[in-house]
# Entry
Amino acid sequence: MKRYRRLTVPEISARKAAGRPVSMVTCYDHWTARILNETDVDCLLVGDSVAMVVHGYDSTVHADTEMMALHVSAVCRGAPDKLVIADMPFLAARKGLRVGMDAIQSLMQAGAQAIKIEGEQGVTELIAHSVESGVPIMGHLGLTPQSVHALGGMRVQGRADPAVHELLESARRLQEAGCFAIVLECVPSAVGKQVAETVEIPVIGIGAGADTDGQVLVLQDLLGADPSFKPRFVRRYLDLHGDMQAAVNRFHADVHGRGFPGVEESYA
Ligand code: KIV
# Structure
Protein backbone atom coordinates (compact mmCIF):
# COMPACT_ATOMS: atom_id res chain seq x y z
CA MET A 1 0.00 0.00 0.00
CA LYS A 2 1.21 3.51 -0.83
CA ARG A 3 2.40 5.39 2.27
CA TYR A 4 1.56 9.05 2.76
CA ARG A 5 3.32 11.70 4.81
CA ARG A 6 1.56 14.78 6.12
CA LEU A 7 2.68 17.87 4.20
CA THR A 8 3.78 20.81 6.32
CA VAL A 9 2.55 24.37 6.00
CA PRO A 10 5.94 25.58 4.65
CA GLU A 11 5.78 22.79 2.04
CA ILE A 12 2.35 24.03 0.91
CA SER A 13 3.66 27.61 0.69
CA ALA A 14 6.70 26.47 -1.29
CA ARG A 15 4.52 24.81 -3.92
CA LYS A 16 3.93 28.12 -5.67
CA ALA A 17 7.59 28.81 -6.37
CA ALA A 18 8.00 25.19 -7.46
CA GLY A 19 5.04 25.53 -9.85
CA ARG A 20 3.26 22.53 -8.27
CA PRO A 21 -0.48 23.05 -7.69
CA VAL A 22 -2.08 22.35 -4.30
CA SER A 23 -5.13 20.06 -4.14
CA MET A 24 -7.53 20.33 -1.23
CA VAL A 25 -10.94 18.81 -0.46
CA THR A 26 -13.33 19.31 2.40
CA CYS A 27 -13.75 16.60 4.99
CA TYR A 28 -16.13 16.58 7.93
CA ASP A 29 -16.12 13.14 9.52
CA HIS A 30 -13.97 10.23 10.62
CA TRP A 31 -14.86 7.52 8.11
CA THR A 32 -14.39 9.84 5.16
CA ALA A 33 -11.11 11.08 6.67
CA ARG A 34 -9.84 7.49 6.84
CA ILE A 35 -10.55 7.07 3.13
CA LEU A 36 -8.98 10.42 2.22
CA ASN A 37 -5.92 9.67 4.36
CA GLU A 38 -5.02 7.06 1.76
CA THR A 39 -5.41 9.30 -1.29
CA ASP A 40 -2.97 11.59 -3.07
CA VAL A 41 -4.84 14.79 -2.10
CA ASP A 42 -2.50 17.36 -0.51
CA CYS A 43 -4.63 18.66 2.36
CA LEU A 44 -8.06 18.54 3.97
CA LEU A 45 -10.30 21.43 4.93
CA VAL A 46 -12.82 21.03 7.70
CA GLY A 47 -14.96 23.72 6.16
CA ASP A 48 -17.81 25.50 7.91
CA SER A 49 -19.81 24.21 4.92
CA VAL A 50 -20.27 21.28 7.34
CA ALA A 51 -23.22 23.26 8.69
CA MET A 52 -24.95 22.95 5.30
CA VAL A 53 -23.68 19.62 3.96
CA VAL A 54 -23.86 17.58 7.17
CA HIS A 55 -26.31 19.47 9.36
CA GLY A 56 -28.71 20.70 6.68
CA TYR A 57 -28.65 24.42 7.53
CA ASP A 58 -29.20 26.93 4.72
CA SER A 59 -25.88 28.74 5.27
CA THR A 60 -22.52 28.49 7.03
CA VAL A 61 -23.69 31.11 9.53
CA HIS A 62 -24.90 28.22 11.70
CA ALA A 63 -21.49 26.70 12.35
CA ASP A 64 -19.99 27.58 15.74
CA THR A 65 -16.71 26.74 17.42
CA GLU A 66 -18.14 23.73 19.25
CA MET A 67 -19.51 22.23 16.01
CA MET A 68 -16.24 22.89 14.18
CA ALA A 69 -14.06 21.42 16.95
CA LEU A 70 -16.13 18.21 17.06
CA HIS A 71 -15.71 17.67 13.30
CA VAL A 72 -12.03 18.69 13.35
CA SER A 73 -11.20 16.10 16.00
CA ALA A 74 -13.08 13.35 14.13
CA VAL A 75 -11.24 14.20 10.90
CA CYS A 76 -7.82 14.43 12.56
CA ARG A 77 -8.23 11.01 14.19
CA GLY A 78 -9.04 9.56 10.77
CA ALA A 79 -6.42 11.36 8.68
CA PRO A 80 -3.15 11.49 10.64
CA ASP A 81 -1.16 11.70 7.39
CA LYS A 82 -2.91 14.78 5.98
CA LEU A 83 -2.51 18.46 6.73
CA VAL A 84 -5.85 19.51 8.23
CA ILE A 85 -7.04 23.11 8.04
CA ALA A 86 -10.05 24.18 10.12
CA ASP A 87 -12.49 26.95 9.27
CA MET A 88 -12.95 29.74 11.78
CA PRO A 89 -16.74 29.87 12.26
CA PHE A 90 -19.11 32.80 11.76
CA LEU A 91 -18.11 35.95 13.70
CA ALA A 92 -15.49 34.19 15.81
CA ALA A 93 -12.78 36.33 14.18
CA ARG A 94 -14.72 39.54 14.71
CA LYS A 95 -15.30 39.69 18.46
CA GLY A 96 -11.88 40.84 19.47
CA LEU A 97 -8.54 39.13 19.91
CA ARG A 98 -9.53 37.24 23.04
CA VAL A 99 -12.58 35.52 21.53
CA GLY A 100 -10.73 34.93 18.26
CA MET A 101 -7.71 33.39 19.96
CA ASP A 102 -9.96 31.21 22.17
CA ALA A 103 -11.68 29.83 19.05
CA ILE A 104 -8.33 29.24 17.36
CA GLN A 105 -7.06 27.47 20.49
CA SER A 106 -10.12 25.15 20.47
CA LEU A 107 -9.68 24.25 16.81
CA MET A 108 -5.92 23.71 17.09
CA GLN A 109 -6.33 21.61 20.24
CA ALA A 110 -8.98 19.59 18.39
CA GLY A 111 -6.13 18.62 16.07
CA ALA A 112 -6.01 21.12 13.19
CA GLN A 113 -2.60 22.24 11.93
CA ALA A 114 -3.86 25.53 10.46
CA ILE A 115 -6.91 27.81 10.50
CA LYS A 116 -8.78 29.45 7.63
CA ILE A 117 -10.33 32.87 8.22
CA GLU A 118 -12.78 34.56 5.82
CA GLY A 119 -12.34 38.14 4.66
CA GLU A 120 -9.66 40.74 5.21
CA GLN A 121 -11.11 43.94 6.68
CA GLY A 122 -11.30 43.74 10.45
CA VAL A 123 -9.41 40.45 10.74
CA THR A 124 -5.80 41.25 9.83
CA GLU A 125 -4.88 42.05 13.44
CA LEU A 126 -6.10 38.62 14.55
CA ILE A 127 -4.32 36.98 11.61
CA ALA A 128 -1.01 38.72 12.41
CA HIS A 129 -1.34 37.88 16.12
CA SER A 130 -2.12 34.21 15.36
CA VAL A 131 0.81 33.91 12.95
CA GLU A 132 3.07 35.57 15.53
CA SER A 133 1.75 33.03 18.05
CA GLY A 134 2.74 30.13 15.82
CA VAL A 135 -0.65 29.38 14.23
CA PRO A 136 -0.60 29.16 10.42
CA ILE A 137 -3.49 31.06 8.83
CA MET A 138 -5.07 30.59 5.41
CA GLY A 139 -7.08 33.55 4.07
CA HIS A 140 -10.35 33.38 2.12
CA LEU A 141 -11.40 36.06 -0.38
CA GLY A 142 -13.90 36.52 -3.21
CA LEU A 143 -17.22 34.95 -2.31
CA THR A 144 -17.05 34.63 1.46
CA PRO A 145 -20.09 32.49 2.34
CA GLN A 146 -20.33 33.78 5.93
CA SER A 147 -21.34 37.13 4.34
CA VAL A 148 -23.99 35.53 2.13
CA HIS A 149 -26.75 37.84 3.36
CA ALA A 150 -24.73 41.01 2.82
CA LEU A 151 -23.63 39.81 -0.63
CA GLY A 152 -27.23 39.09 -1.65
CA GLY A 153 -26.62 35.39 -2.28
CA MET A 154 -23.90 33.04 -3.42
CA ARG A 155 -22.87 35.05 -6.46
CA VAL A 156 -19.69 35.62 -8.45
CA GLN A 157 -17.56 38.41 -6.95
CA GLY A 158 -15.02 40.83 -8.44
CA ARG A 159 -16.66 41.28 -11.83
CA ALA A 160 -15.40 44.87 -12.26
CA ASP A 161 -13.52 47.70 -10.60
CA PRO A 162 -13.45 48.89 -7.85
CA ALA A 163 -14.20 45.35 -6.58
CA VAL A 164 -11.22 43.85 -8.45
CA HIS A 165 -8.87 46.51 -7.11
CA GLU A 166 -10.13 45.92 -3.56
CA LEU A 167 -9.67 42.16 -3.99
CA LEU A 168 -6.05 42.61 -5.07
CA GLU A 169 -5.41 44.97 -2.16
CA SER A 170 -6.98 42.51 0.28
CA ALA A 171 -4.82 39.67 -1.08
CA ARG A 172 -1.72 41.83 -0.56
CA ARG A 173 -2.77 42.70 2.99
CA LEU A 174 -3.46 39.06 3.86
CA GLN A 175 0.00 38.16 2.63
CA GLU A 176 1.47 41.01 4.69
CA ALA A 177 -0.43 39.83 7.77
CA GLY A 178 1.30 36.46 7.38
CA CYS A 179 -1.19 34.14 5.64
CA PHE A 180 0.52 31.10 4.13
CA ALA A 181 -2.13 30.69 1.40
CA ILE A 182 -5.44 32.17 0.29
CA VAL A 183 -8.64 30.45 -0.83
CA LEU A 184 -10.24 32.46 -3.62
CA GLU A 185 -13.89 31.65 -4.27
CA CYS A 186 -16.13 32.42 -7.24
CA VAL A 187 -14.43 35.14 -9.24
CA PRO A 188 -13.95 35.41 -13.01
CA SER A 189 -10.95 33.38 -14.25
CA ALA A 190 -9.06 36.53 -15.30
CA VAL A 191 -9.41 37.87 -11.75
CA GLY A 192 -8.26 34.55 -10.31
CA LYS A 193 -5.14 34.85 -12.46
CA GLN A 194 -4.56 38.47 -11.38
CA VAL A 195 -4.85 37.62 -7.69
CA ALA A 196 -2.47 34.68 -8.08
CA GLU A 197 0.03 36.94 -9.84
CA THR A 198 -0.28 39.62 -7.15
CA VAL A 199 0.87 37.56 -4.18
CA GLU A 200 3.75 35.17 -3.57
CA ILE A 201 1.69 32.76 -1.46
CA PRO A 202 -0.43 30.04 -3.11
CA VAL A 203 -3.93 31.08 -4.17
CA ILE A 204 -6.19 28.03 -4.01
CA GLY A 205 -9.23 28.55 -6.19
CA ILE A 206 -12.81 27.33 -6.08
CA GLY A 207 -14.65 28.71 -9.07
CA ALA A 208 -11.69 31.03 -9.71
CA GLY A 209 -10.47 29.53 -12.99
CA ALA A 210 -7.48 27.48 -14.05
CA ASP A 211 -4.70 29.97 -13.34
CA THR A 212 -4.65 29.83 -9.55
CA ASP A 213 -2.00 27.86 -7.65
CA GLY A 214 -4.33 25.07 -6.61
CA GLN A 215 -7.95 23.98 -6.41
CA VAL A 216 -10.35 23.08 -3.62
CA LEU A 217 -13.78 21.46 -3.89
CA VAL A 218 -16.38 20.34 -1.40
CA LEU A 219 -15.96 16.55 -1.39
CA GLN A 220 -19.68 15.84 -1.72
CA ASP A 221 -19.81 18.05 -4.83
CA LEU A 222 -16.96 16.25 -6.57
CA LEU A 223 -18.47 12.89 -5.62
CA GLY A 224 -21.90 13.85 -7.00
CA ALA A 225 -23.78 13.42 -3.72
CA ASP A 226 -26.51 15.90 -4.61
CA PRO A 227 -27.82 15.87 -8.20
CA SER A 228 -29.77 19.08 -7.58
CA PHE A 229 -26.56 21.04 -6.80
CA LYS A 230 -24.25 21.61 -9.75
CA PRO A 231 -22.64 25.04 -9.82
CA ARG A 232 -20.59 25.78 -12.95
CA PHE A 233 -17.25 25.32 -11.16
CA VAL A 234 -17.92 21.77 -9.94
CA ARG A 235 -16.70 18.72 -11.81
CA ARG A 236 -18.33 15.47 -10.72
CA TYR A 237 -15.98 12.49 -10.53
CA LEU A 238 -18.58 9.99 -9.30
CA ASP A 239 -22.33 9.51 -9.18
CA LEU A 240 -22.42 8.93 -5.43
CA HIS A 241 -26.12 9.73 -5.21
CA GLY A 242 -27.05 7.16 -7.87
CA ASP A 243 -24.51 4.52 -6.83
CA MET A 244 -25.46 4.75 -3.16
CA GLN A 245 -29.17 4.48 -3.86
CA ALA A 246 -28.58 1.54 -6.20
CA ALA A 247 -26.52 -0.26 -3.51
CA VAL A 248 -29.16 0.28 -0.83
CA ASN A 249 -31.91 -0.80 -3.23
CA ARG A 250 -29.96 -4.00 -3.99
CA PHE A 251 -29.69 -4.66 -0.23
CA HIS A 252 -33.42 -4.04 0.14
CA ALA A 253 -34.22 -6.41 -2.73
CA ASP A 254 -31.94 -9.10 -1.26
CA VAL A 255 -33.66 -8.80 2.14
CA HIS A 256 -37.11 -9.02 0.56
CA GLY A 257 -36.04 -11.90 -1.71
CA ARG A 258 -34.42 -13.68 1.25
CA GLY A 259 -31.13 -13.53 -0.65
CA PHE A 260 -29.32 -11.89 2.27
CA PRO A 261 -27.68 -13.11 4.41
CA GLY A 262 -26.16 -16.09 2.61
CA VAL A 263 -24.27 -18.96 4.23
CA GLU A 264 -21.01 -17.01 3.95
CA GLU A 265 -22.52 -14.11 5.91
CA SER A 266 -23.93 -16.38 8.66
CA TYR A 267 -22.33 -18.01 11.73
CA ALA A 268 -22.17 -21.83 11.82
O1 KIV B 1 -16.37 25.78 4.03
C1 KIV B 1 -15.94 25.42 2.93
O2 KIV B 1 -16.25 24.35 2.41
C2 KIV B 1 -15.02 26.31 2.23
C3 KIV B 1 -14.64 25.95 0.83
C4 KIV B 1 -15.74 26.31 -0.08
C5 KIV B 1 -13.37 26.56 0.42
O3 KIV B 1 -14.62 27.31 2.76
Observations:
- The pocket of 3-methyl-2-oxobutanoic acid is lined by residues 26, 45, 47-49, 87, 183, 185, 206, 216, 218 (CB under 6 Å).
- The CA atoms of residues 30 and 77 lie 7 Å apart.
- The chain has a mean pLDDT of 97.
- Strands lie at 22-26, 43-46, 83-87, 114-118, 137-142, 181-185, 203-206, 214-217.
